[in-house]
Amino acid sequence: MSAAMSAAVSEARRAFYRAIDPLGLAPLWEVLHALVPARPASAAEPALWRWQDVRPEVLRAGELIGAAEAVRRVLIMENPGLRGQSSATGTLYAGLQLILPGEVAPSHRHSQTALRFVLEGRGAYTAVNGERHTMEPGDFVITPSWTWHDHGNPGHEPVIWLDGLDIPLLRMLDAGFAENRPDAGGPATGPTTGPASEPERPEGDALARYGSNLRPYPEERAALAAPLFVYPYGRSRAAVLQLARSGPPHPVHGYKMQYINPTTGGAAMRTMATFLQLLPRGFTGHWYRSTDASVHSVVEGHGWIEIGESPRLRRFEWGPRDHFVVPSWQPYRIGSAAESVLFSFSDRPVHEALGIWREALT
Ligand code: GTQ
Predict the structure, then answer these.
(1) Residues 213-222: tens digit of each pLDDT
(2) What's the gap in Å between 271 CA and the centre of ligand 1?
(3) Does 244 reside within a domain?
(4) Which of 107, 159, 166, 286 could be 150's S-S partner, Cβ–Cβ 3.0 to 4.6 Å?
């Protein structure tokens, strides 16, 4: 085709697009390659939030707004490729929540599922459907979809934890519902004692019922989608440490374990998978990629991660309480300078439920 002919064709096509636009029609052929890409091309970017940079700002937020006024006093970790969307990845939200001594974050519930991973401080609790758990660093706590929950700090130190939620996913599905607890005072019929919910069961109840390799007999209908909502760090850490003594590391993942729902054996939550991973000192992982995007929280140790392909290869050095994101399908390899423990969460259960999860060594 001559240049003059192709100019005439493209002008005719543009006129056609303008003509069909008012009818709510658009030509597929202009966007097909982006709609049905050869491989995922995530708008999310590899990203790192250094604890030494973000911690002072989280504490500063505590001087500017109270937990009750904020409802949840959180600094959102926004992916640089998704600014303004409150998203760490295309489907996942991550934030750093602060609760100061004497504060209460009032009871509410929402269809989004939440996870907490405690970063710093002791003595604060999360209450889920009437049971409190007093949190220690490294504890992993679940708030299943549509369960009442509040947070409080009757202790003496500021407590900071990582919030992970499926907020962007539910936004994509237009499936977000939320409500505040009307009296926030415990059982619907019980006395009102202020904004903190009144415990209905003693602490440790869920752990005894579902977290001890036992289940209640005769079988009782689990009250929650995630009957075990607390995974104390001491136990999880001991498991990965023991694993590291009994065989060689996996070439990609080191010693990695997945938190499970003990009544199903599957992921601890319906939309988010959670992992605890030990890397022995001097470990260098094999290059790897998978379709689930993940958020990582360093618990102990020091190391590095390389994400992406040249010329856009990124390298982050990480240490305790640093956070980083690995977007979908970006190749990465992870290594350690010292024995390290990392917590992570991803949208993998959604991929698996839809039959679209993929992984590859690269
Ligand atoms: O604790 O319920 O970081 O609803 C964002 C939304 C925390 C929570 C967040 C929430 C919560």
Answers:
(1) 998 998 877 6
(2) 16
(3) yes
(4) 107
